[in-house]
Design brief:
- This protein is α/β, with parallel strands linked by helices and 138 residues long.
- The protein has a single domain, classed as Rossmann fold.
- Helices cover 50% and strands 18% of the residues.
- It has a 5-stranded parallel beta sheet, with helices on both faces.
- The two termini are 23 Å apart.
Length: 138
Amino acid sequence: MERPLALVVDSDPAVREQIKGVFEGYDVVVLGAACAAETMEILRSRPVRFLVLDLRAPGVAALDLLRYSAQLQPAPILIPVASAAEREQAAQLVEAGAFDTLDRPLDESRLRLMVHKALRQHSLIEETRRLREDLRNR
């Protein structure tokens, strides 16, 4: 089975590395991006399963990115990262379909829990997809 791919979008390389380390602990391949242009390039070329998105990343319009990524097959699980000033925007993203939010500064235990929950969600989505394919092939 192919290892899932996570894309971490954050202008801070240290934050990207912190999140990358947690995902890699679960055998997930991780790519990083610092801005919207890099993010779109990767989303167009790779099957991203997890999208961790800093709401402060340069050029990022989070709601537009959520809408775009929701059209991808399969759609990535979106996890916005928000500061206290961005919590309202993060809540709107969850209402629009994002999985959950992470608060900045990142708490390591909360980050690990979030990744674990996102991986469980991914497993459920994949199992549902396989069951649907099996039913179609009967």
